[in-house]
Amino acid sequence: MMPLPFKKMHLVLITGMSGSGKSVALNALEDLSFYCIDNLPPELLLPLIQLERANEASQLAIAMDVRSAASLPLVPKQLAQLKAQGLQVDCLFLDASTDTLMRRFSETRRRHPLSKTDTPDHNHDQHRALAEAIDLERELLSELRAQAHVIDSSIIRPTQLQSYVKSFINAPDDQLTLVFESFAFKRGVPNDADFVFDVRMLPNPHYEPGLRELTGCDRPVIDFLQQQADVKKMLEHIHGFLDHWLDAMVRNHRSYVTVAIGCTGGQHRSVYLVEQLNELFASRWVTLKRHRELAASAAAIF
After folding, report:
1. 35-77 pLDDT per residue, tens
2. Full-model pTM
3. What are φ and ψ of residue 106, in 5° steps?
4. Helices marked H in 85-175 — which ranges?
5. Residue closest to 284 by CA, chosen among 164, 180, 177, 169
6. Burial class (CB in 10 A: 0-12, 13-18, 19+), 22
7. How deeply is 3 buried, as exposed, middle or buried, from its count of CB atoms within 10 A (0-12, 13-18, 19+)?
8. Ranges of each domain in the chain
9. In this structure, CATH architecture of domain 10-170
10. What is the mean pLDDT of residues 282-288?
11. Dist CA 30 CA 9 (whole Å)
């Protein structure tokens, strides 16, 4: 007997690195009236969906992490099954740089879930042990990361992370969500980027009187950059590259693509290009834009 089709339900799966902000993401989804469950064993996913279907739930958010490592390989097949039965399924992966994760664990004195003992052997370097646990966690979660929309929480505040999560969840359900993100190279390349474009060779408004304190969203900076032939050429080249390859990525079943545009300070050139690219692609794809440095501040997220 064929199973009955599921009631239309929106399921959000949150996973990611320990210490990257999964609890912050769950809080954001609670604000959006999702019923949230933390650390659900994968074996219980399908029975839970059946139960919530009977309860006529419409929004469900589930967090899974490396504590369920042995059964995580079940998840991709389960998600494909749920999508085939009519659920809207969004996958969100929270990431951060290894240095950031190590600092967060050190500051909070929490033990990584893959640490072997509470009191490491004197002969084993504790710093190295934590780095090894993080590397192993990345390996175990790599398949889930490849299928998810990735958010890098390395240098953003919890409130900014919550804003990113809400924007992603509120985006229309479509084949592809295209994220444009500006950043400063001096603060590191975002871990969530699928494509990175370096625009530091372009004329810099920072050195123009009256423009230094403004951003790429302000009209005087926009007017300045629009007058630069190299800026126009860069915009055309990035637009042409993405316009050519995004269709191929969709055919390869990609649901999320993040394009990072970087300049020196992440304030003028990269912000301007993100705004322009978002406008160019918004009529064809679901687009989101982020300006990491305009609101970013290093903060621990646990």
Report:
1. 999 999 999 999 999 998 888 888 999 999 988 888 888 999 9
2. 0.81
3. -65, -45
4. 98-108, 126-146, 158-170
5. 177
6. buried
7. exposed
8. 10-170, 177-294
9. 3-Layer(aba) Sandwich (3.40)
10. 91
11. 16
